[in-house]
């Protein structure tokens, strides 16, 4: 760090020193990522993120900057900038599985489900049957409404009787319901309730599965439980009005 600072004081546009100092400061921890008081003509006072971005702006071709910038942008809650830099890093290091996993997570947060699924599948190509990655892929596929593919992604759990993570039976229930099997959905929602207790999301899913099965009394009971937990739940109120409406003969 001292060597890099000294070099920058001697030549403020020393790109190599900027990169070296940026990486050292990154390794010091998140409190060294930014120094808002640093002047543009005093790079030796800048934080790690500022230094690496300045070095890149000045024409740095050091490939290390992509990963470190991505990691800092991710830590700062800027997933788009993080994903862009992780992608650049992966073009140079195609076998970096951990970075591909980070990309899958980031794209899921950005609701870019196609890219997220592709990233997770890329990880699974190197780690077949990895339970964490398979579970994450199933989450993405549920949100893509790719029900059958989602069920297939959970095979490391369902085939091997491996315990699902918290929320796993809710996920499995959603996939079964989307695939047209509300009976299996109700079974899994029940298991999730036994494991984790009631929640608005779980009870609403259970109520909809009961409706799919034409079990109106059970659906009404579930929607009423939703309103106990969230008295302003508009969908619950709307569905209860419809379910309780007398049928015309």
What are the SSEs and their pairings?
Layout lengths: L1 H9 L4 H14 L19 H10 L6 H12 L3 H14 L4 H13 L3 H14 L4 H13 L3 H7 L1 H4 L9 H11 L3 H15 L3 H13 L3 H14 L4 H11 L5
Helix pairs in contact: 1-2, 2-3, 3-4, 4-5, 5-6, 6-7, 7-8, 8-9, 8-11, 9-11, 11-12, 12-13, 13-14, 14-15
How does this model look, in words?
The chain is mainly alpha-helical. 70% of the residues lie in helices and 0% in strands. The longest helix has 15 residues, at 182-196. It starts with a helix and ends in a 5-residue tail after the last helix.
The largest sheet is: none
* Count of individual beta strands: 0
How large, in whole angstroms, is the Cα Rg? 25 Å
Write down the overall geometry.
elongated
Number of helices: 15
Helical amount: 55-70%
Summarize the structure.
By secondary structure, this protein is mainly α. 70% of the residues lie in helices and 0% in strands.
Features:
249 residues, mainly alpha, 15 helices, 0% strand
